[in-house]
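Person: At home tonight, work slowly through the protein below, taking as long as you need, and write a paragraph about the fold.
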Amino acid sequence: MTIGILNIGTGNIGSVANALKFLQYPYELISQTKDLNNCKAIIVPGVAHFEYLMSKLREEGFIELLNEKVSSRKLFYLGICAGMQILSDYSSEGNTVGLGWIKGKVEEIPKKSAKGSIIKIPHIGWHRLKILNKSKIYSEIPNKMRAYFVHSFHYKVTDKSCVSAEVFYGRNIVASVEQNNIFGVQFHLEKSGENGIQMMKNFVSLVHSRKS
């Protein structure tokens, strides 16, 4: 089993690769669509502009292939930060259409909290999660896990049953999503200490448990 890390000029590839190295899981950097043939999962790292990431996926021919593989549930998907946000239908960051796998839209985080106080944008730093369901990716993870965030836009998910965790930053913000074989986290789990590494381990274990 090989885990693919998308490598098309976006994302924090090194940190994700180092996390998989630490866990001693084999991985491959995915630069072309043919590289996905031997992978049971793909990780799309964060640190990218929504419009740029979608344009790169389109230019390299990944969108059609990912739609086929992920929708048929042959391939597990883990999106980190922007890699999660592109699961949406649309983002105001570049007025761009997303993959549309988990319904919702991405908007800039309001500069005022729900109570009217000014908050700093981007949202940077360590904040505690509120885990909302029994997602397997949160196995052995404490409910108030501290995670590391760096983002200015947030994902407003239509179907709340797809939201597996929230974080409070002036208001409740989606911290992670899940739908069948699709997972997304707004925070950088590869930079979120031991719990983040445990989440990465949980994801790979889910991939490994699938027999097909």
